Model the fold of this input.
Amino acid sequence: MVKLTGKNRIKTAVFISGAGSNLKNLIKFSKYNKSPIQIKCVISDNKYAKGLNYAKKFKIEKKIFKFDKENKNEKKILDFLKKNQVFLICLAGFMKILSKNFIKKFNGKILNIHPSLLPKYKGLNTHQRVIDNNEKFSGCTVHFVNSKLDSGKIILQKKVKVFKNDNSKLLAKRVLKKEHILYPEAIIKVFSNL
Ligand code: GRF
Done:
């Protein structure tokens, strides 16, 4: 087993689009002894993403890229990741779809967190759909990213109870709390066999 400490830690980029609570949580996790990752950079498609403040606060390099449909910036993004020697990408509330070519380049090295018990409720508006369908449980999933939306191999999941008087906001909040436990656990699981 390789000891992933200090400079040996896996160089990781976190991709965000919004609030960045998972980013903040991953930054905190990266500072623990048992963490196999170091966060080299934060990438966002949204220059107004609140989460970018965490990159600033923790002095992590951040970069905004336009993720357009024609993937015009893809080479620039790949070059930036290469320059930072990024090995692992963690998507954390990142709202753009990565191209097939991009995913191929990082094959098996892109993780995503999704706020449902996949394969149920892929895509957007998960919490409202869960409530509308009177589900008793929801939860969150960390999975590998492949070219189909929210469909890659599942790494770990956590369940959350749905209450009778729930609304999507309350449920989202409870799921998010579990996400913050799940993402680090999933990363440890992925790299525990090295
Ligand atoms: C999380 O619920 C994540 O699962 C989903 O978007 C939300 C992002 O939250 N993909 P945050 O930006 O990490 O706070």
Q: What stands out?
A: The beta strands are 10-16, 37-44, 61-64, 88-91, 110-114, 137-144, 154-161. The mean pLDDT is 95. Residues 16, 18-22, 51, 92-93, 113-115, 176, 179 surround 5-O-phosphono-beta-D-ribofuranosylamine (CB under 6 Å). The CA atoms of residues 127 and 168 lie 5 Å apart.
